[in-house]
Amino acid sequence: xxxxxxxxxxxxxxxxxxxxxxxxxxxxxxxxxxxxxxxxxxxxxxxxxxxxxxxxxxxxxxxxxxxxxxxxxxxxxxxxxxxxxxxxxxxxxxxxxxxxxxxxxxxxxxxxxxxxxxxxxxxxxxxxxxxxxxxxxxxxxxxxxxxxxx
Length: 150
Ligand SMILES: Nc1ncnc2c1ncn2[C@@H]1O[C@H](COP(=O)(O)OP(=O)(O)OP(=O)(O)O)[C@@H](O)[C@H]1O
Ligand SMILES: [Mg+2]
Fold this sequence. Notes:
Elements (H helix, E strand, L loop, with lengths): L1 E4 L2 H14 L8 E5 L6 H11 L14 E6 L2 E7 L6 H6 L9 E5 L13 E8 L2 E8 L2 H8 L3
Parallel strand pairs: 2-5, 2-6, 4-5
Antiparallel strand pairs: 1-7, 3-4, 6-7
Helix pairs in contact: 1-2
Adenosine-5'-triphosphate binds next to helix 1, helix 2 and strand 7.
């Protein structure tokens, strides 16, 4: 699935459509957010976290690595691996304990093995004044989810 997102509002609107397609329990689902600096990964994550009922700021997890959100519609872990350089560090940050929530992962290429256990890859790239987005399913559950995005 490929779309053009003309501005920030379009990225946020896609995040809202994505949220509407999520299963009742998204626990254990892993969504990779791929794209260069400023491509809109955090914009998408913020839109999704707000659409799931969070009120308040959605700070970048660049330094904390993980920002947890315990929301009425489920737990979301916003993860940023920009500063991570190995699978070992990923274990250190407690990745395996993040299985009770939806995991949104920026810079997943820092831990390439992650792609083997992920469900969806959202790739954002610069396109004119906006962005292009490509959404790929990496698992059966990911395929179902993509089919439900309206
Ligand atoms: N579809 C879009 N068209 C134009 N600008 C956009 C679009 N989506 C987001 N932006 C803008 O891009 C900028 C960077 O967005 P964002 O912080 O989400 O990027 P990022 O991929 O998370 O960057 P980083 O790699 O630094 O974490 C923001 O100013 C945001 O408003
Ligand atoms: Mg970001």
